[in-house]
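From the methods appendix. Each design record in this collection lists the tokenized structure first, followed by the designed amino acid sequence. Records were kept in a plain field format so they could be parsed without special tools. The example shown here is representative of the layout used throughout.

RECORD:
FOLD TOKENS (357 positions):
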């Protein structure tokens, strides 16, 4: 298939979509415009969550004795909802092979997606969490008409390349030497996108604590050297004469829905401003915060139990200084358990925190 000269990425997408739609070449979805055209053997299948709204991966787990028809359903969006479990950032999963959709691809391994950037971002996030490396092969499956010459000038640093192209008639080893993304390019991500993807917020917070530049595309950049040194209180090392470690969130009271979350194990030199900033960055800012710094903990008050549960999920693995904080839903105390029989605000709970999605 020949391309017009002087084209843009969107020109290429439209030409491929028009050609495939006019010749009824795509299996599904239909119509094919603005979609990735679609043309398995006892392998563990991880699929990205749609638009990364609830996490990065879902692990497909077919029911015992699944037939071929059931396995086909497992690969659909409905199957993902029915037969999968979320895979968190701390799962230490290793991906052996990446299969990515494409609208157009060249024999050199250069790829064009549908223009939303999710495949490039998913790969960059996998790099950041250690799931893939430079030797992990990337494969795309397309129709022959989607294999075209793509001008190198259209490629950007964050674009994912492919190592193998599978078509109905050929297997193409691209031998692509262009480097793949080595992580997330935060300068390419807007605050609007960041606000829609909780798992991306978690990764950004981790990389910020590791000292990386995580300035977003539409954020003002700090002056050079303004953040080159961490405050002394963030890197302090506890000595043998230090006071006892902060309190975790102990169990108290009776079960019952509550909109309060306990954050425990706060460093003794932690500041409430640090915690508030981390909560904002992770999309878990509460309506009200009760600071109990001397006791090494804080209570986060949310409007609804569901919001509190979501906060527990988003705050997993949060570090302040050198300490990883504990996070748990609080419980309400019975009036009979309290001096004078008065009901107080929810108290901390030592139940295991919910795993991140």
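DESIGN:
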């Amino acid at each position: 298939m020949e391309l017009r000269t002087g084209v843009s990425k969107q020109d290429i997408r439209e030409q491929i979509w028009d050609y495939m739609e006019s010749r009824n070449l795509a299996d599904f979805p239909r119509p094919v415009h603005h979609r990735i055209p679609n043309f398995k053997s006892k392998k563990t299948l991880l699929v990205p969550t749609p638009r990364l709204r609830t996490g990065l991966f879902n692990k497909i787990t077919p029911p015992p004795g699944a037939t071929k028809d059931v396995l086909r359903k497992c690969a659909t969006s409905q199957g993902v909802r029915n037969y999968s479990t979320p895979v968190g950032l701390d799962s230490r999963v290793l991906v052996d092979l990446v299969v990515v959709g494409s609208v157009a691809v060249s024999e050199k391994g250069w790829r064009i997606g549908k223009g939303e950037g999710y495949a490039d971002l998913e790969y960059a996030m996998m790099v950041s969490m250690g799931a893939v490396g430079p030797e992990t092969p990337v494969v795309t499956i397309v129709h022959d008409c989607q294999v075209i010459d793509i001008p190198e000038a259209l490629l950007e640093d964050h674009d994912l390349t492919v190592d193998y192209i599978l078509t109905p008639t050929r297997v193409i080893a691209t031998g692509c030497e262009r480097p793949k993304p080595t992580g997330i390019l935060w300068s390419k991500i807007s605050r609007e996108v960041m606000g829609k993807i909780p798992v991306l917020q978690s990764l950004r917070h981790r990389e910020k604590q590791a000292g990386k530049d995580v300035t977003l595309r539409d954020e003002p950049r700090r002056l050079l050297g303004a953040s080159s040194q961490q405050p002394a209180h963030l890197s302090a090392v506890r000595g043998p004469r230090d006071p006892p470690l902060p309190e975790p969130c102990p169990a108290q009271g009776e079960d019952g829905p509550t909109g309060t979350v306990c954050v425990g194990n706060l460093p003794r030199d932690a500041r409430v401003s640090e915690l508030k900033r981390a909560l904002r960055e992770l999309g878990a800012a509460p309506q009200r915060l009760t600071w109990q710094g001397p006791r090494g903990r804080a209570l986060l008050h949310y409007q609804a139990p569901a919001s509190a549960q979501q906060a527990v999920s988003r705050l997993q693995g949060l570090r302040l200084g050198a300490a990883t904080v504990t996070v748990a839903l609080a419980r309400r105390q019975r009036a009979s358990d309290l001096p004078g029989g008065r009901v107080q605000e929810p108290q901390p709970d030592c139940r295991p925190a919910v795993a991140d999605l």
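APPENDIX NOTE: Residues 260-329 form a domain with the Alpha-Beta Plaits fold (CATH 3.30.70.330).
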